[in-house]
Every structure is written in structure tokens, then in C-alpha cells.
Specification:
seven-stranded mixed beta sheet; binds iron/sulfur cluster
């Protein structure tokens, strides 16, 4: 059975057979034109008319068409592991939530939702929890991403307002990037800045990050500050602003409160102390402050390196203080700028997706706001205090306070700190509902009821990007099976719980109209989020809605910047400078745990890989979870390059490939956040991160966990290719999709006595398959190939140390059906050089190819490499890595292991 897609695209929205929509990944919010191929897939192109990207897409966006298939999808409601009808599932969910509320009160239930939801989905979930159940126990995975920015905005501006626009990043004379590997995490914004800098070479970029990243190549000045010391650096800047007479006295006098207190706090620390805390030389700090003070048009961009900290809110305010003191806010080319990780983190903030907010930026602690919302919704019950923030919400599941939990479109068993404890907490909750697009995730495995949601390409609604721009996500594929839009799933439960009139929308356009109408109520109360001009939009216009930046008030032009002339959303309409002082990360290093764990993203994967891991092209960039370890730390721990390591904290252990590099500073280890139990045996890095949070925002400190590292005692290492998807039975494994099959990194703590039979069991190879084996007992090298009727099923390369196989070549040969004898050589012939680890995903160009051709042809810039090899000429995401190769640096590449 196939249900209709939410809303078919209107004619106006169709471009050459393609449908205008928005990318579902990061907060840049790029416009996409998707052209269905009639077989369930779609061709993808950047939308040249979308103001976020003007046609650009990064590697993830470009590969969207490879991720829309039905593989692994949840297509029908499941109750207790058995298929159920929507009626049965909806009735059960409504009954169990009602029973919990009747017996234990409204705070005994909770929703944990996601920045992947569309604004309409979010609006309905929030309305059900806050207005009708009467609890504020709805929180979102955006808590992990930018809650500190929200809290910092509210303290400084009186509302969660992003003051600037993307144009500011291009118009600035100085762009300061703080805790943000923009080149990999917000690639199209990075490309916009890079293009602006190329066109206007006087523009300067400062990169503030403990690590040297792909973003560093664009920087005129890189400051490798000590983890967590941002407040000290920006307080030093504020002190220098005052000393240099760079304060905008008129702006401060008219529009700012708290100046003297904030400055006094900043000046209480000497330059020498700042240098000691940040680990920067005084000359570096002086160079930065001189550049910042000397650049009227300065934008300070920040993301997870600032937010994911026990001092995250203070870091945000330390940055904003400098912009308020100089009046450099709300004018072209200047202002603080928080960039969000998720596609609709901003939309979630607009509808009260966080437990600390009400819809339309109304405040749960303000009686007038609560009353206005209750009146608007005609709601029977409203919470009077904030609900449980993410970490506390799962603690409440663990200790029995939460009796019924609904997780929507997110994977907390992987992504929350102390993820093992979170999984146990979910398991302990008496009734757990998960709505998702996938049948099998680390979290769906823990559910009593699974509800199939429509995916990107099938659902329809709006999202808001980091610059407050609302874009339509449009359906271009039919909803498969019994999958339904999230808003409708929640609305049906709301109706079944006894409120049919309040949850009776005909379509997502009706939900949007109500959301827009509510914003007028908030606007009347003096708040920033006002899209009242869209409150009467008809369905055809909603379907055709062009990207529009809020505010969209009835009586003024839409969009623009905030605060150039003051007008803050505080009671006295003044912005607030907040006195802040440096605080070290919450948990100190110790003899047992002497290194700081920094977590983050890789270029080609998204969150818990539920979507990007379906693309072999994206999976080729980083095929295995890894740890960047400084050479000095590796030497102390006895860790060799490309070996496997154990990384331990008091909360757990992960096993990772060691990437020994001075890109990460001595004393720190960097590990990507993406790998789940579906893709690696022990790669869930959040299982070792402690649940320490910022006391104001509740955002976890994801970048400062004390850990230790040691070699993983492997008796053998292996690399395997299999035709079919299998979860290897090995002590260590990591798998990634590749063309025509799967690639696996393997290791064991005991050498098999019978390699052939144990490999069959490990890789799920049929007894029907014949085997070719080359085993060298003296050296311990093993090569096995299995084939049925001449068709290769699996190959394994094993050795006592990391396996020296040309993986990209072997995977390509496996995909092309190379015969077994040649496959087992594991290296290309002299006439066919090894391409090396994939750098350019779009054109499958490897690091070795780039280095070889660049050396042979004397290519010395990225453009020349592009002309010769096409690498870097499509999405451009790999251009920083090509630059790194040309500079003779080892690229940030692993390809499964660094020894290739
Ligand atoms: Fe999507 Fe990439 Fe654009 Fe982010 S930068 S919205 S991931 S295409």
C-alpha cells in the first residue's frame, strides 16, 4: 500500500522536471533541485536561485540522490515487533500516554525530538506536549548543538535572535571563525567566504580552533587556543577594545546595559594570565586583537566549539560583548553569527522545540506569554516552568520518573553523552515510542512501538536556516508503504488522546498558517519572531513559497538585520553585556585520564550516518572511525601510526584507528561523532563522553572529556570485501558501503586456527563458495578469496600488523568483478597506479593520484589540479584537502588506514 505524498509540488515549483526543495543536512540550508528518475531515485542539483547557496552544493548535498532509496526503511507501524495498523498503533500510543498522565501527572511523559523535523512537525509536537498534555517535557537534539547560543542570545538580546545575514560574511573585512571547522561542517558558507576573499584579497580570516583543520588553509591567522579557553581570549579582546578607545560610546550609551561590569570582569585578568590560560603567545593575542579592533566590518562566526562546553553560554556572551561594545552589530559585514548544525534547528527554536521555550519565542516563565499562548491555542493546560533538558530527560527515564517516552527522528542511544547509560535509560522506560524513517537504528531497537515517518523527498513543510531564512522542503517522491508525515502522526495521537478539534489540520499548510498566526501574538508582546504576513497564505502560495527571511511582519519589508539601531527585546530595549570569566572545562585531567577528547564531524558524513552511510561515494572519504593523536602523545602511549587504539573514560571504551598527526594539539585527541553500533563494533564516541552540561543552557560538554589511550592488543588485522551486507563476527570491525558490496576493517585478539572456516563464519560466507587461499605461516600473512560459480563473494587480507592493501584499488576491482587471482594481489599493476584514499568524492579522485599528477605536471594550485583531474570542480568540498596535498601536507585522510 502506498500513501500519497504530503502535498504534490505546484507547477511554479517545478524547474525542468525538477522540484525546488532544501537540503536536509546542515544549517546552511542550501536550495536543491531534485529531479525524480522514476525509479525511486533523483538527480540532484544546487538551486541557482536560492539565496543560501546560489547553486552550490557540498559533497553531502550533491550525493542526496544516492540516499533516497527504500533500503532499510520502516514502512509499517510495529507494536512489540509485530506489524500493526495505524489505528492500532495510534490508539495504543494515545492510551499509554493518557494512562501515564492520569496516574503520574503530565510530567511523567516526555518527547525527545529533532532538528531533522520540519517546522510543522515540531509545531504540532510542541502544541501537544506544552498546550494539551500540560508539560514542558519536550526537548530536542538541538540541545546538543546550539542551546548555548540560544541562552547567550536571550541573555544579551532578550530573545533568540540571529542578528545578521549570510551576506555579512562576504561583506566583512574580517571573518573570525571560532570553534568551527566550517570547511567540513558548513561547506557552502566556507566556499562563499573563500570566494569573497579571492575577489577581495584585503579581506582577512582568523581561525580560532585547538586543531589545525581543513578550514585553517583559508586563515591569515590561526590561533590554536587551549580547549575551552575562548572566554579568556574574548575578554582580552574586550579589554583591548577599551584600552584602544574603540568603544562606540554613543551606541553603548543609547542601547547597551552592563558595559562597566562586563569590562571590569574582563580587565581583572592580565595579558600574561590570558596567555597562560589560552596557551597562546601574547604576540598572537595582540595580533588578533589588533586585527579585530582595526576592522570595523567584522563578523565573528561560531558553532560547536563554542556551544558544546560547560561554559558555552559564557563563551557566546564573551563574543557578543565585543560586538555590543563596538556597536558592530546589525550593519552590513558585522555582528556575532551562530551557525547551526542541523537543517531545522532554527525552526525548532521558533516553535518551542526546546524544553526551556514556548512557541514563537514566547517564554515559559512569563505569565503573560503563557496566558497569550493558552488563549491562542484554547489549551486546557500549560506548564509554568521549563521542562527537562535532554540530559536530564534521559536521567528521568533511568530513575523511573518518565513512564512514557516518544522519540522522533533522532538517535539518542548514539548521540547523547554517556550513550550507553542513555540506551539503558530508554530500555528502562515502561513505554517507548520511536518514529523514524529507518527500521533498525541503535534507538529503534529499544522501542515498544515503531511509527514509520516520511523521509526527505517524501515530506513537505518548511525549515529555517542559520540566517533566519524559511525555505520549503517539498515532496518529490511518493510516501512509501504506510509512512506518514511526522506532523500527522502526532496530530492523530493528539486527536486520539481527546483533543480532535485542536489537532484537526487538513495539511501542513494549515499547520503553517496557525504557526504564522501565533507569531503575531508574540509580535504584539514585543518579541522578534514575527511572520504574521504569512498567516493567511493560501495553500497554493504556501506550495510556491520562495525562501524568505524572517521577520515577515504585516506592515514592513521582510528580512534584514537586527540591532543596528538598538531595539533589543529586553524590557528596557537595551542589549546586555554580561560579565563573564574564564572557567576551565568541568572535569580536570588526571593521571588516569591525561588527554582531552574533542569530538566533531567529518566532511562526508552526517550525524549518526543513517542517511550518508547509504552512499558508497560518501563512505569512501572516511571508511572507519578514527582518533587523531598527536605524535608526542602517541609515543608516550606506545601507539603506532595506523594501529588500533583503545580510548577509555570512566564511562566506557571505544576502539579506533590511530591517525597520528600534529593537526591535533599535544594533550588532545579528536574523534568523529558519527559511528554507531551499525557501522563499527565499538566506535560510538558518545559512549565515553560524560554528561556534564553548561549550567545555563544544559548543553553537554562534548569536547573536553578526560580520556586515556593505549594500544588495542590485536593478534591480527584484516581488510575484507563482501558482496552482501554483513556484521562481521570479530573483536574489532568497521564497515562501509562500497560499489558492489561492503568493505570491512577487522582485527582479532586471537589468531584463527582455521582461517578458512573461521572467515566463513566471520563474514557470513556460504559453504557453497569455493576458496582460494594464500597463507604464509612464517609471516602470518593471509589472503583468502571466496567465489560461487566464478563470482567473487568475499576476500580477506590479514596480517599480524595493519594490512598494507591498496583499499581504493581493491574495492574498485571488487566492484568491477575482477577475477579472484588478481584481486588477491591487493595492489594495482605498475601500469595502473594506486589512486590512494578518496579526496574528491564527486569524481572519485584519490590522494595519490593528485600528488602524482601534481608532481609530474608541476601543478601548484587547486585550479590547475581541477583542470587536470576535475577534482574539486564540482561541489568544491575537497578543495582544502587538495590545497593541503599541494602544500606537501599529509591530507586529512585515512581510507580505512593510514598505511596505504
Ligand atoms: Fe547541505 Fe552541504 Fe548546503 Fe549544508 S552546505 S545545506 S550539507 S549542501
Amino acid at each position: 500500500m502506498t500513501e500519497a505524498a504530503s502535498t504534490p509540488p505546484a507547477e511554479d515549483d517545478v524547474t525542468g522536471g525538477g522540484v525546488r526543495t532544501a537540503c536536509p543536512y546542515c544549517g546552511v540550508g542550501c536550495g536543491v533541485i531534485a529531479t525524480p528518475d522514476g525509479q525511486g531515485g533523483a538527480a540532484i542539483a544546487g538551486d541557482p536561485d536560492h539565496p543560501a547557496n546560489f547553486g552550490r552544493l557540498c559533497s553531502k548535498g550533491s550525493a542526496l540522490g544516492e540516499t533516497v532509496g527504500l533500503e532499510g526503511r520502516l514502512l509499517t507501524p510495529m507494536v512489540g515487533g509485530l506489524e500493526a495498523s495505524w489505528d492500532e498503533a495510534t490508539t495504543l500510543v494515545a492510551r499509554r500516554f493518557r494512562e501515564a498522565i492520569e496516574e503520574h501527572g503530565p510530567d511523567s511523559v516526555a518527547f525527545y525530538v529533532s532538528g531533522q523535523l520540519l517546522t510543522e512537525d515540531y509545531y504540532v509536537a510542541n502544541k501537544l506536549m506544552k498546550g494539551f498534555i500540560g508539560s514542558a517535557n519536550i526537548d530536542t537534539n538541538s540541545r546538543l548543538c546550539m542551546a548555548s547560543s540560544v541562552a547567550g542570545h536571550k541573555r544579551a538580546f532578550g530573545a533568540d535572535t540571529v542578528p545578521g545575514t549570510y551576506e555579512d560574511l562576504e561583506e566583512a573585512d574580517l571573518v573570525v571563525l571560532v570553534g568551527s571547522n566550517l570547511a567540513w561542517c558548513h561547506p557552502v558558507l566556507f566556499q562563499r567566504i573563500a570566494a569573497a576573499k579571492a575577489a577581495r584579497p584585503g579581506m582577512r580570516v582568523v581561525n580560532i580552533d585547538p586543531r589545525r583543520t581543513a578550514t585553517s588553509g583559508l586563515a591569515d591567522l590561526s590561533l590554536s587556543l587551549a580547549p575551552g579557553s575562548d572566554v579568556a581570549l574574548f575578554n582580552a579582546l574586550l579589554s583591548r577594545i577599551v584600552e584602544e578607545g574603540a568603544v562606540d560610546d554613543a551606541y553603548v550609551r543609547q542601547h547597551v546595559a552592563g558595559f562597566a561590569e562586563a569590562v571590569a570582569r574582563a580587565q581583572a585578568v592580565s595579558p600574561a594570565e590570558v596567555a597562560a590560560v589560552t596557551g597562546l603567545r601574547e604576540a598572537e593575542i595582540e595580533a588578533f586583537t589588533r586585527l579585530w579592533i582595526g576592522s570595523e566590518r567584522v563578523v565573528t562566526v561560531y558553532s560547536q566549539g563554542v556551544n558544546q562546553s560547560s561554559a558555552g553560554t559564557d563563551k557566546v556572551n564573551a563574543i557578543i560583548n565585543c560586538h555590543l561594545a563596538t556597536g558592530r552589530i546589525g550593519r552590513p559585514g558585522m555582528g556575532p553569527f551562530s551557525v547551526t548544525g542541523q537543517p531545522n534547528a532554527m525552526g525548532g527554536r521558533e516553535v518551542g522545540g526546546l524544553a526551556t521555550m514556548l512557541a514563537a519565542h514566547l517564554d515559559v516563565t512569563e505569565p503573560a506569554h503563557r496566558d497569550a499562548l493558552q488563549d491562542f491555542w484554547q489549551a486546557p493546560a500549560m506548564p509554568t516552568a521549563p521542562g527537562l533538558k535532554a540530559v536530564d530527560l534521559f536521567r528521568a527515564c533511568a530513575d523511573g520518573r518518565i513512564k512514557a517516552l516518544w522519540i522522533m527522528s533522532t538517535n539518542p542511544a548514539v548521540s547523547l553523552p554517556q550513550a550507553d547509560d542513555v540506551a539503558a535509560a530508554i530500555r528502562a522506560c515502561p513505554f517507548v515510542v520511536v518514529s523514524d524513517i529507518l527500521a533498525d537504528t541503535d534507538t529503534t531497537r529499544l522501542a515498544d512501538v515503531l511509527l514509520p515517518a516520511t523521509a526527505w523527498g517524501e515530506k513537505s513543510g518548511t525549515v529555517t536556516n542559520s540566517e533566519r531564512r524559511i525555505s520549503r522542503q517539498r515532496a518529490f517522491l511518493p510516501a512509501p508503504g504506510k509512512a506518514r508525515p511526522d506532523w500527522r502522526i502526532v496530530a492523530d495521537v493528539g486527536a486520539a488522546m481527546g483533543w480532535p478539534e485542536a489537532f484537526a489540520w487538513a495539511d501542513e499548510a494549515s499547520v503553517f498558517r496557525e504557526h504564522a498566526a501565533l507569531s503575531e501574538v508574540a509580535g504584539d508582546l514585543g518579541l522578534d519572531f514575527d511572520i504574521a504576513a504569512l498567516a493567511e497564505i493560501d495553500t497554493a502560495d504556501y506550495d510556491a513559497l520562495a525562501p524568505v527571511q524572517w521577520p515577515v511582519p504585516r506592515d514592513k519589508a521582510a528580512g534584514g538585520r537586527f540591532f543596528a539601531e538598538g531595539g533589543f527585546f529586553t524590557p528596557d530595549r537595551r542589549g546586555r553585556m554580561i560579565p563573564v570569566a574564564y572557567r576551565a572545562p568541568a572535569v580536570p585531567l588526571s593521571q588516569d585520564y591525561p588527554l582531552r577528547l574533542n569530538t566533531g564531524r567529518v566532511r562526508d558524513h552526517w550525524h549518526t550516518m543513517t542517511r550518508t552511510a547509504r552512499s558508497s561515494r560518501l563512505s569512501a572519504h572516511m571508511a572507519e572511525p578514527y582518533a587523531e593523536v598527536h605524535p608526542d602523545d602517541a609515543a608516550v602511549a606506545g601507539i603506532d601510526a595506523a594501529s588500533l587504539i583503545r580510548l577509555d573514560s570512566p564511562y566506557g571504551t571505544v576502539v579506533l584507528r590511530a591517525l597520528v598527526t600534529d593537526r591535533t594539539p599535544q594533550g588532545s585527541v579528536f574523534v568523529p561523532m558519527h559511528w554507531t553500533a551499525l557501522f563499527a563494533a565499538r566506535g560510538r564516541v558518545d559512549s565515553v563522553v560524560g554528561a556534564v552540561v553548561d549550567p545555563i543552557s544544559g548543553q553537554p560538554e562534548s569536547k573536553a572529556q578526560p580520556v586515556r589511550i593505549e594500544p588495542f592488543a590485536a593478534a591480527w588485522h584484516g581488510f575484507a570485501l563482501t558482496r552482501h551486507e554483513v556484521t562481521p563476527k570479530a573483536d574489532y570491525w568497521a564497515r562501509a558501503k562500497t560499489e558492489g558490496g561492503w568493505r570491512h576493517e577487522l582485527a582479532g585478539t586471537r589468531c584463527p586456527e582455521d582461517w578458512v572456516e573461521e572467515t566463513r563464519a566471520m563474514l557470513g560466507v556460504s559453504q557453497r563458495a569455493g576458496v582460494v587461499s594464500v597463507i604464509d605461516p612464517a609471516l602470518g600473512n593471509v589472503r583468502l578469496g571466496f567465489a560461487i560459480d566464478g563470482a567473487v563473494e568475499a576476500v580477506l587480507f590479514a596480517s599480524p600488523g595493519p594490512v598494507a592493501v591498496a583499499r581504493t584499488h581493491a574495492a574498485a576491482a571488487f566492484a568491477e568483478g575482477e577475477e579472484l587471482g588478481r584481486l588477491l594481489i591487493g595492489r594495482p599493476s605498475a601500469a595502473l597506479p594506486d589512486p590512494g584514499a578518496t579526496v574528491c568524492s564527486c569524481f572519485a579522485v584519490g590522494a595519490n593520484t593528485i600528488a602524482r599528477v601534481a608532481a609530474a605536471e608541476g601543478l601548484n594550485d587547486v585550479e590547475a589540479v581541477g583542470r587536470a583531474l576535475s577534482a574539486g570542480t564540482n561541489c568544491g568540498s575537497c578543495r582544502p584537502e587538495i590545497q593541503g596535498i599541494l602544500e606537501g601536507l599529509r591530507p586529512v585522510q585515512l581510507d580505512g588506514m593510514a598505511a596505504e
